[in-house]
Amino acid sequence: MNSEPRGAVELRGVTRCYARWPFGARVEVLRGVDLELARGATLGLAGPNGSGKSTLLRLLAGVEEPDAGLIRVLGTSPRQAASEDRVGWLPDDTPFPRDLSLRAALRLAGAIHGLRGRALDRRAEERLERVGLASVARRPLGRASRGMLRRFGIAQAWIHDPELVLLDEPTAGLDAEGYVVLASILDEARARGTTVVIASHASSDLAERCDSVAVLHAGRVALHAPPGEVFAHGGLLEVYRRLAGSGP
To answer: 42: which residues sit within 8 A by CB, 6+ positions away?
Structure first.
């Protein structure tokens, strides 16, 4: 009998602080966040600038640790290697050296997640073709357009067929071809039962693609509901106005 928890993501009382320069005072970006996400679901993560969306994704990716609270990803800590190899992450900017070619950077991403030899070669070429970058595979990251870099980011997030994918503003800077690619890959991910978390400022990204939307306000999850309820009275700006008017 499989005793692994059914949920893909569980956060209990998660707090994350950063030191504010130049005086070093610590600021709470996340203040006791509680959140659950079922396996195979797609969650939209919204909130004004500075609300902690990217911070929350970095915590789920295991890039940072919380100052307090519990985080479980696919039944284990996101800092464990067993979890890292099951998670794909599209950060706001590529973390790879800019002198690497798109092909070399994608191969590096695959190698980080355990792909080797011919399997790695095949997967990298398949992903480059899938996102429309095969013809420019030798181009250095530093000479790629913003749209190309976002498509590359989509490819590297899915290079190892992860069970959980974290997308930070996936449509920001995305070109027209990239929109089609992303929509298609998200459809395939849903069909395969992949869990997806999308952080976005675009109401359309969240309303059209997500099973539920969690809105961060004052460091906490102020609202978590189906998109129809979240956007019943308008887009994200209206949601933020209502939350601001309700106080912390």
So the answer is: 186, 190, 195, 196, 197, 198, 209, 210, 211
Q: Any idea which residue has 């959140």 for tokens? A: 35
Nearest-CA neighbor of 164 among 127, 192, 143? 192
Cβ atoms of 134 and 128 within 8 Å: the answer is yes
pTM over 0.70? The answer is yes
What average pLDDT does the chain have? 92
Q: Are strands 42-46 and 195-199 parallel, antiparallel or unpaired?
A: parallel
- Cβ-based neighbours of 97, under 8 Å, separated by 6 or more: 105, 141
How confident is the model at residue 95, as a pLDDT?
A: 87
Distances from the Cα of 3 to the Cαs of 18, 38, 145, 155, in angstroms? 36, 15, 46, 32
DSSP codes, the chain: ---S-SEEEEEEEEEEEEEETTTTEEEEEEEEEEEEEETT-EEEEE-STTSSHHHHHHHHHTSS--SEEEEEETTB-TTSHHHHTTEEEE-SS--S-TTSBHHHHHHHHHHHTT--HHHHHHHHHHHHHHTT-GGGTTSBGGGS-HHHHHHHHHHHHTTT--SEEEEESTTTT--HHHHHHHHHHHHHHHHHT-EEEEE-S-HHHHHHH-SEEEEEETTEEEEEE-HHHHTTTSSHHHHHHHHHHH--
Over range 136-157, report the average pLDDT: 96
Task: Single out the residue of 38, 34, 33 nearest to residue 8, CA to CA.
Answer: 38
